[in-house]
Design brief:
alpha+beta, single chain, 6-stranded mixed sheet, Reactive intermediate/imine deaminase, RidA, YjgF/YER057c/UK114, two-stranded antiparallel sheet, 2 helices, RutC-like_sf, deaminase activity
C-alpha cells in the first residue's frame, strides 16, 4: 500500500507526480530543484545556495514522512556541469554523517527542469 507524502514546506509538484511516495518503510522522493517553497522562485544566485535550497527541500519532504537524512540509503544527483561537482559535494556532504552517508551516483546531464544546475532525489527507510 502506498502513501503519498505532501508538504507545503517543499515546492509543489510542477507536473503529474508526488513529492514522495511511502511504501511500507521505504520512502521514494521525486527529484528536488532549487525552488524556494515560500516564494516559488528559483534560488540560482550561486551554486552553493542552489544546492542548499535543494537539500532543504529534501529535508522538508523527509520530515513530512517523519524521517531525517540519517534515514537516506541512496541519493541520485543530476548536474548540468561536472565542473560544479566540488561545490555540490561540499554542501551536500554537510547534510550527512560521513560514516553513515548513503550510496549515490552523480550524473552530468545536458539539461534539467527550469534550466537549473542540480536535481537530487533520495530513497530512505525507517
Amino acid at each position: 500500500m502506498k502513501k503519498i507524502i505532501q508538504t507545503s514546506n517543499a515546492p509543489a509538484p510542477i507536473g503529474p507526480y508526488s513529492q514522495a511516495v511511502l511504501v511500507g518503510n521505504t520512502l521514494y522522493t521525486s527529484g528536488q530543484i532549487a525552488i524556494n517553497p515560500r516564494t516559488n522562485e528559483l534560488v540560482l544566485d550561486s551554486i552553493s545556495n542552489e544546492i542548499q535550497q535543494v537539500m532543504e527541500n529534501l529535508n522538508a519532504v523527509l520530515e513530512a514522512a517523519e524521517m531525517t537524512f540519517e534515514n537516506v540509503i541512496k541519493s541520485s544527483i543530476f548536474i548540468s556541469d561536472m565542473n560544479n561537482f566540488g561545490f555540490i559535494n561540499e554542501v551536500y556532504g554537510s547534510y550527512f554523517n560521513e560514516n553513515t552517508a548513503p550510496a549515490r551516483e552523480t550524473v552530468e546531464v545536458s539539461n534539467l527542469p527550469k534550466f537549473v544546475n542540480v536535481e537530487i532525489s533520495v530513497i530512505a527507510i525507517k
